[in-house]
């Protein structure tokens, strides 16, 4: 699982299930052939293989949106913040 911040910094995480704290809007890429599971706040998201997702956790709650042309144009310029892994399994 690859996580990219606004500064273009990409971190690769090993594992299948993650509990993360996201500060801002980040881009996640599931480069494996298996499904990954991300819990952010009180919501859990399933990330399909070989797909990009934008994930954020704000005061309005966490959300995950699969990347397509319209989400890329909307969210890519707004990537910001950082994250930390709270639990990995």
What gyration radius follows from the Cα positions, in whole Å?
12 Å
> Can you count the beta strands?
8
Q: With helices defined by DSSP (H or I, 4 residues minimum), what is the helix count?
A: 1
Share of helix, binned: under 10%
List the topology elements:
Elements: E1 2-4, E2 10-12, E3 17-30, E4 36-40, E5 43-47, E6 51-58, E7 61-66, H1 69-75, E8 80-88
Parallel strand pairs: 3-4
Antiparallel strand pairs: 1-2, 1-3, 3-6, 3-8, 4-5, 6-7
Describe what you observe in this structure.
- Helix content is 8%, strand content 60%.
- The chain has 89 residues and is mainly beta.
- Strand 6 and strand 7 form a beta hairpin.
Quickly list its features.
single chain, 89 residues, mainly beta, 8-stranded mixed sheet, 1 helix, 8% helix
TL;DR of this structure?
With 89 residues, the chain is mostly beta strands.
């Amino acid at each position: 699982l690859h996580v990219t911040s606004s500064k273009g910094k990409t971190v690769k995480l090993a594992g299948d299930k993650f509990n993360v704290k996201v500060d801002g809007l980040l881009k996640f890429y599931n480069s494996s052939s298996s499904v990954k599971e991300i819990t952010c706040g009180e919501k859990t998201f399933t990330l399909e293989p070989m797909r990009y997702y934008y994930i954020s956790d704000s005061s309005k709650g966490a959300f995950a949106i699969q990347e397509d042309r319209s989400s890329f144009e909307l969210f890519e310029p707004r990537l910001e913040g950082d994250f930390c892994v709270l639990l990995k399994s």
